[in-house]
Structure prediction request, 194 residues.
Amino acid sequence: MRTSPLRLLQDPTVVVLAAGHGGSDPGAVNLPHKERDQAITITDQTADLLRGQGVEVEIAPHDEDTERSIQWVNRNFSFGDAWVLELHRDSASGLDLDDASRRCGIYYGTSESSKDIGNFVRSSFILNGTHPNSWARPDTASNFGRLGWIRQTRPVAHLLELGFMQGKNDDAHLSWLAKVAATTIMEAFTGRSF
Ligand SMILES: [Zn+2]
Prediction:
């Protein structure tokens, strides 16, 4: 039984996850760590956790870059049938290790309902142990001014930034980030907790 408290998530029946970057774009790099590889690890683990809770999840093909992932989403899903999330790791210098490891964020789109999801996710992140600096921002506040993942996909779309490449990078930490992502997505999408 699903009873999302969020208007835009009441009709969709499937969560679609995509790992950020891909193709020839590795995303942020903090040698030897590549954002793209970590995003794939986190995406796969998040999907497993959600499926274990009975949530229907599809994963965009990992061999596609963002542009082709958007095309894949639009071939397979329409507005109202899916919630599509692209998962990233953030990058910045000068943060302390704890902040860099645990600060998570969400970019939302132009509508108030999309912003409602952003604010819900930010609160859920923090309740699930992320850093108090965790944030929700409109995509116009991103470095790119607007995000194709949010503007060009037909279904409701958001983009998550899960910790920084300059924070912890070990497998246990990536699994913790996947647990945070899965728990938060579950709460927003179903109104239920793990
Ligand atoms: Zn990224």
Residues 88 and 161 are 5 Å apart (CA to CA). Residues 20-21, 27, 35, 88 surround zinc ion (CB under 6 Å). The radius of gyration is 15 Å.
